[in-house]
Amino acid sequence: HLGKQPVVLSFFATWCRPCEVELPLLERERVRLAGTGLVVAAIAIDGPETAAQIPAVVRRLKLGFPVLHDADSAVVSRYNPRRGVPYLVLVDRGGRIVREREGWSQEHARTLPGEIEAIAGKPASGPDR
């Protein structure tokens, strides 16, 4: 998808409470911006002691985008070497990283929809905000 479609990568862990706020927001944006080609993917950085909890978290949060487990840290070492969570990477259609953010705040909750729309564009038709 990189270099062809706008991509949101969200690094999370099952034990991260702020991640449980961010991930459903990303799901809402994925649905809202359907038709723009936006790709959202979450990457779990859980170690072996909590990895088994990943599917339950995905079901509980009702996530409709791909959720991957980076068991060997190949992706996290490239995009999130400090292993922070939540950690968000926004990539534009040209494959350029336009935003990286670690952590969570209410300000971020307010600005994130506009940041994602900036890389994805507005949907041709779809649900209202």
Helix and strand composition category: alpha/beta
Q: Could you give the order of strands across the largest sheet?
A: 3-2-1-4-5
What is the count of helical runs? 4
As residue ranges, the low-confidence spans are none
Average pLDDT figure? 91
In angstroms, what separates the terminal alpha carbons?
26 Å
Please provide the ordered H/E string of secondary-structure elements.
EHEHEHEEH
Q: In angstroms, what is the radius of gyration?
A: 14 Å
Estimate the global geometry from the Cα principal axes. globular
Number of strands: 5
Portion of residues in helices? 25-40%
Largest sheet: 5 strands, mixed
**Beta-strand proportion:** 15-25%
What is the subunit arrangement here?
single chain
Descriptive report:
This protein has 129 residues and is an alpha/beta fold. It contains four helices and five strands, in the order E-H-E-H-E-H-E-E-H. It has helices spanning 17-32, 54-61, 74-79, 106-120; strands spanning 7-12, 39-44, 67-69, 87-91, 97-102. It has a five-stranded mixed sheet. Helix 2 links the parallel strand 2 (39-44) and strand 3. Helix 1 packs parallel to helix 4 (106-120). The longest helix has 16 residues, at 17-32. The model has no long low-confidence stretch (mean pLDDT 91).
